[in-house]
Amino acid sequence: MLQSVCSLPKALTGTTVKDILVCNNSPQCGVVYATFQLQRISKVPETAFRSFHGRISSVASSVLQRPRVFTMGISSATNNGVETNCPSVPTHMDSIPVFSLDEVASKLQQLTHPNRRTYTAMYSSVVGGITLDPAAMVVPIDDHIVHRGHGVFDTATVCNGYLYELDAHVDRLLRSAAQARIPLPFSRSVLRNILVQTVAASGSREGSLRYWISTGPGGFALSPSECEKSSLYAVMIGKERVKPESGVSVITSSVPIKNPKFAIMKTTNYLPNALSTMDAEDKGAFQAVWLDEEGYIAEAANMNVAFVSKGTLLIPAFDRILSGCTAKRLVVLAELLTANSKGEVLQKVEVRKISLEEAKSADEMMLLVSSYLVIPVTAWDGQPVGDGKAGPVTRFLYDLMYEDLTNGPPEVREPVPYVSK
Ligand SMILES: Cc1ncc(COP(=O)(O)O)c(C=O)c1O
Questions:
Q1: Nearest CA among 258, 156, 151 for reference residue 213
Q2: What is the pTM of this model?
């Protein structure tokens, strides 16, 4: 790793290298730090750098600030010949740099993980507007949503330049805010308009809009009484829709389900959901399915579940779980289908308690979520569901939902007023 002389910026000549640290805390990223003390100015010994492979990626320009010690990060690793732009992460340092606002902004601009390119717009009520620069898409650390998780959120899909089911998602957000005792920062109509304008400003015609309401910034106390004003944040993630797999496997979660009081709200406390998904991934599965405290089928970590049994679509009742917008829309469309197709595809739709035994003996199983609509489940706890293939009713219901997403009625499709460039 230690090979060539890096080119030193002119500003550094005449400084003294006090300490050099090599931090290899990520496999693709070796960051070399050199700490300089300006008091002991002599000359940077070339030998100190002779051996570094890479180029100087950042130099703290707070050189003249106190303490008169600063740190230079040198990106020293390459990943398949492409230089990685890793943040400077020390394992030990004499002093940590103190950055100005401009320097922080420039540091944030250097973060280049691939997903950042898909963050095409963010609204923040704290700044009172929209930014298109991912580096500026930040949230104050003293916002109650950050340090206490006191916030609610929702996500709506954008497809072909339309927001799908925006009203259902906004209604759920407002319900969650009321349950979490978060006053609304704006009226419903203003909030809705901000969301639509955020998508319009992004220019993204595909992807998802995620938005949060929080008790807002103002202090670090447990009570939100210090928070000055509720905040609204929204970010457009301009990613192409991923078609659902032809069949995924699930496990029964070994992570305890949330108490129903919390499961019915969409709050930012998703630790059980994240741990449950990790549990699934550890076992080679896509999602983990929760049972409620009485052993009935509840939901998956961020999806609802549904079954087809003897011509009936079965969906767990929503009183102890999140009421999924996709699942609710599917109920409406499936009921129309049963009425119009005289039971050819489905005879009945039932939203009720479903025992584990009934679910495990179902002919078909599916996961329901806005981003994918309907995902067929072909294996559960290592056993095939039905004949182990995506079921015909499940595939039909996906097509039904996809048609609604792309050609549904105006009440579920909000055209985004993009400004032509
Ligand atoms: C816990 C939980 N259940 C169900 C869902 C499905 O909801 P929707 O269909 O509105 O995406 C989600 C999605 O966010 C979720 O987080």
A1: 151
A2: 0.80
